[in-house]
Amino acid sequence: MSNLQELDDAASDDSISNFGAAIGTAADFAGAIGGVAALIDVMNAFMQTGQDQLGMVQNSINQLIGAQKAADLQNRLTEMVNALATMQGVFDGLKADLNANLNAADRNSRIETCSQALSIFTDPSLSPKATWSAPYSDLVYWDDRPDFYYSGGPLTTVDLGYGVVSPTPDADGLVFYYNVALPSFLRALAIWVAEAAALDPNYIADFGAAVLQPAVNTLNWVHDTIVGQGIQILAPVNANADYVEWNGAFLFQAAFYTETADDPQILEANIVRGVTPLPNVPNTNAPSGVNLEFGAIELYSGVSVMATYSLPFRFPEPAPNLNRLNAAPPIDLAPLGFVSWTDTSMAPYNKFQVRCMYEKIRLYRDFNIIEIWNAINTFNSILSLPLLSRPNPGDWSFLALCQLLGLDRLSAIKTFLITTPPTDTPQGPGPISFRALLEV
Questions:
Q1: How does pLDDT run across 293-346, given as a tens digit for each residue?
Q2: What is the distance in angstroms between the CA of the first residue and the CA of the last residue of the chain?
Q3: Are residues 109 and 256 in the same domain?
Q4: Are residues 185 and 271 in the same domain?
Q5: Whether pTM exceeds 0.85
Q6: Which domain holds residue 22?
Q7: Environment class of 324 (CB within 10 Å of its CB; exposed 0-12, middle 13-18, buried 19+)
Q8: 266 shares a domain with 191
Q9: Where are the alpha helices (DSSP H) in 200-239?
Q10: DSSP assignment, residue 230?
Q11: Which of 163, 340, 317, 347 is nearest to 251 (CA)?
């Protein structure tokens, strides 16, 4: 969905998922000079991936510059590339430094050079806004137009999508922006750990508090900002952009407006974004159901995972042909003698909330944000700090499920998911796993 797809790829794929393995390998080689050749091979493979991704980032930035955007981002990228080049130069000489049997002062000088370069990502006194933010107007955000233009009713086209979804800039017009900084930071951090572990067997005691702890704090901050502020649910909203707690009657009303209204103002006042009518029941003007576009989006990068929730309506036989094309809102369906097959039950909506919960979990996993969490725990282990405990945002919390559904037993949740419409859970003669019921 986002025009920054290459940047999303650079931030979300191998540079994150391979980071923990690279750091763990470097930590394992601490002080083991005989294993440095193998360490360098592993780190070079990791950093080659990072170099390829920096090229992707550069290409994407150049595309934005061609659209008269991102001049500021170009400056930030240059600063990061220069810092990485400094660290890469030191790392490229690591094998020769070890063969030369450097004295303690020279070894410490190499580590300090890398520490200084790393500090552009972690030192608040060096204006972290310059590293981890960008002008709001320089970026391109998630936008589902024109994917959900609908043309089934009297009006030529109706936009039923969510449109542009973006973060709110701060007082300086900046937004948190990590697509460039995060892969660069992870690469720089991997170089630092490899260099320090190879040159100083006591690098944890000598540099843990001054260098590694600020790096871990930065990783925690990035992770928590993405999870706490970046990952949002996309679900049907009304004209005021407020989430709607729908039932079947409400959804039928929304679909009927879309199908029949010929006054744009009436339609706009009653529109429900994310809800698209299914074809009418034959020989009537009654929509046969709705599709709900929903999912989860990471606001700062524009990456998303989307799904469709289909709800058919049940009508009396024969289905009525409603003649209320220009009725003043809202249409009261009860006197018309029928509602959707769900009537006013909120059970399908509550089941929908479980599906929304899964989309957030899926985004966290698929976008490899979970690997930042794993990397934090890798460093916490190295620094002898308490590990982050589970569940993390990529895990299911049965306590949260019970609170959401108002149920107190897992068996009750399982029955609810199977029996509540729509029928979207696996069917079969054998046992169905709980994960299969949740992750559809």
A1: 999 999 998 889 999 888 887 766 655 555 543 333 333 333 333 334 446 788
A2: 21
A3: no
A4: no
A5: no
A6: 5-137+177-201
A7: middle
A8: no
A9: 203-207, 213-225
A10: I
A11: 340
